[in-house]
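Re: Re: ligand-bound prediction request (bumping)

Still looking for help on this. To restate: I need the protein modeled with zinc ion bound, output as structure tokens. Inputs repeated here so nobody has to scroll up.
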Amino acid sequence: MKILISADMEGATGVTWPADVLPGTPQWERCRTLFTSDVNAAVLGFLDGGADEVLINEAHWSMRNLLLEELDERAQLLTGRHKSLSMVEGVQHGDVDAIAFVGYHTGAGTEGVLAHTYLANSITGVWLGGVRASEGLLNAHVVAEYGVPVVLVTGDDLTCRDADGYAPAARKVAVKDHVSRYAAVCRTPARTAADIRAAAREATALAVRYEPVVGGPFTVELEFDAEHLCGAATVVPGVVRDGERRVAYTSETMYEGIRTFKAVTTIVSAAVEEQYG
Ligand SMILES: [Zn+2]
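Reply:
Sorry for the wait, this slipped through. Here it is.
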């Protein structure tokens, strides 16, 4: 049995503000240890539950955050950028039985610690088929096309509530309780590691592949905080203006849908001016 862990950082133990997750800052250096502890706890829990193989896919920022030397020796780490499925890279090869979203967070424009969708700023909302979409929801639709269940989600309490919508059967662990976008009541790494390990062990029983879901076409809408970003985004073929600060596109599959999303966010982030947005 092979488990894939998609590891994002904003939802990790103790993480509550930008410097905690910005590569190169002293706070990020400290929080890497907390993040690695969460991920390793999930690895240990899946191995306890009977998994033979655990692959971790780094999913935050430069995708170089986890401390390889602190991970259990039975795990493998996919580190670095430029992967066709981004946050859920590795799910497409037909050998993954389940996926875990560790360190996830809520979507842009909603309540939650460090809430955002792909870009830390500039995007004020994302909708999939008219429903507000977090990264968890978008990626859950991607992995469904490969018949891979989401069996574990960790993050703040609101992330767990969000996951109740897109992965109701998955085990959830709230490592902190939301107070504001930049504040949370945090539990210690010793406590959250124990909780994550226990939940991952239970989640292993849910690692049963199903028939790939053919759910398209998918319509994705994005809303920005500045009008000119629509001009940047609509350079991507198929992306059209859908309002003063909104764009939309439709894809036959979520494989294409997430790739278009990545193209839009990459172009939009390059079009943001430091002072004017
Ligand atoms: Zn994220």
